[in-house]
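TASK: fixed-backbone design
INPUT:
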């Protein structure tokens, strides 16, 4: 039986392409996986990218496009606009997992972009775990960790200073 993962990348093109690359690597490693990438589309700027991706769908990798409100800014597309699309995402996943189909995969979890954390609620409704996917490179994440370490060290040193 195939295990189904649902990936939900941020609407930004860079996040979408990083997610697709990660998905392809996962599928190369395990043929028991089946992955659906739910693409949230807010404008026509990404239409050609989405069209080329959906044309490449196969039995192990599918793309589901959900359209949101036209022309939000990239900043607003990552918060309240994504929140509004939760019912559409839920319906798309439910349709994918129709229990009456004999080849219906077993839902294993949701992998959500760092800007789509509101979709964790949808995973909770299906009773599956959710995982966060950071599209940042390792160098950036190390920098953030180092900055936190420096901050914590400064706080530790300052607590012994009386004046």
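OUTPUT:
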């Amino acid at each position: 039986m195939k295990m189904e993962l649902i990936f939900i990348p941020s609407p930004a093109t860079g996040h979408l392409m990083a997610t697709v690359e990660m998905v392809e690597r996962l599928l190369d490693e395990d043929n028991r996986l089946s992955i659906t990438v739910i693409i949230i589309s807010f404008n026509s700027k990404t239409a050609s990218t989405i069209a080329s991706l959906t044309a490449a769908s196969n039995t192990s990798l599918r793309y589901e496009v959900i359209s949101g409100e036209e022309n939000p800014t990239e900043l607003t597309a990552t918060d309240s606009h994504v929140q509004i699309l939760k019912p559409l995402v839920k319906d798309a996943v439910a349709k994918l997992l129709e229990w009456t189909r004999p080849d219906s995969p077993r839902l294993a979890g949701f992998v959500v972009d760092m800007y789509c954390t509101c979709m964790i609620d949808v995973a909770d409704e299906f009773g599956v775990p959710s995982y966060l996917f950071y599209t940042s490179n390792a160098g950036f994440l190390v920098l953030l960790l180092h900055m936190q370490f420096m901050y914590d060290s400064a706080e530790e040193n300052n607590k012994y200073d009386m004046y």
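COMMENT: The longest strand covers residues 33-41.
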